[in-house]
């Protein structure tokens, strides 16, 4: 479902069809910028900041970004193939119709992020804070969510079949509204899921 235009951040500047491939964006600060068709392939950053920005049909492929903030941003039709995000902050950001092949994220804060309907089948997410994230309808069969804080996240209609969920907070995961066949969980996760079913674990 397309994003309601009235919910997009207000932007003051437009950067269109720029070639930032291989660029080092470290330390750059962008606020209320609309990026359209920008090529960020193999771009890198450490400590960059993007806030209230809109990215449309941008390519982040094979980039590595460390301790970079992309807060309250909207990504529409963007490609994140083989992207590495380390200790990045994406609080409140929204992803719509984006691709995440071989995507990797480690650490950082993704609370309140919306990934509704995203294809995360080949993604590996480790140690990320994803409290109250919208993961409804995600296609995450065989994905890896390792040690992820998923407290109060929404999983309605999510396909997590065969996913590795060990070490993650699964207290909000209702097995009656998500597909979990073959998913790998640890003892703590099993207790949380049993609790979601109303079982008394002793």
TrEMBL record:
Protein name in the entry = Uncharacterized protein YjbI with pentapeptide repeats
Q: Which organism is it from?
A: Catenuloplanes nepalensis
Supply the Pfam families for this chain: LD_SV2, Pentapeptide
Q: Domain (SV2A/B/C luminal): give its ranges.
A: 25-100
């Amino acid at each position: 479902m397309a994003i309601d235009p009235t919910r997009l951040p207000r932007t003051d500047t437009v950067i269109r069809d720029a070639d930032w491939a291989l660029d080092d964006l470290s330390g750059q600060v962008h606020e209320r910028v609309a990026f359209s068709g920008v090529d960020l392939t193999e771009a890198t950053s450490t400590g960059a900041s993007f806030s209230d920005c809109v990215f449309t049909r941008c390519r982040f492929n094979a980039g590595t970004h460390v301790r970079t903030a992309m807060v309250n941003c909207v990504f529409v039709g963007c490609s994140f193939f083989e992207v590495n995000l380390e200790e990045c902050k994406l609080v409140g950001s929204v992803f719509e119709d984006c691709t995440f092949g071989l995507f990797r994220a480690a650490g950082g804060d993704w609370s309140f992020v919306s990934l509704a309907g995203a294809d995360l089948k080949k993604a590996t997410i480790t140690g990320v804070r994803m409290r109250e994230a919208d993961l409804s309808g995600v296609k995450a069969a065989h994905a890896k969510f390792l040690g992820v804080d998923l407290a109060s996240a929404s999983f309605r209609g999510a396909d997590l079949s065969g996913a590795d969920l060990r070490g993650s907070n699964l207290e909000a995961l209702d097995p009656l509204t998500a597909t979990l066949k073959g998913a790998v969980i640890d003892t703590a996760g099993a207790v949380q899921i049993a609790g979601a079913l109303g079982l008394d674990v002793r």
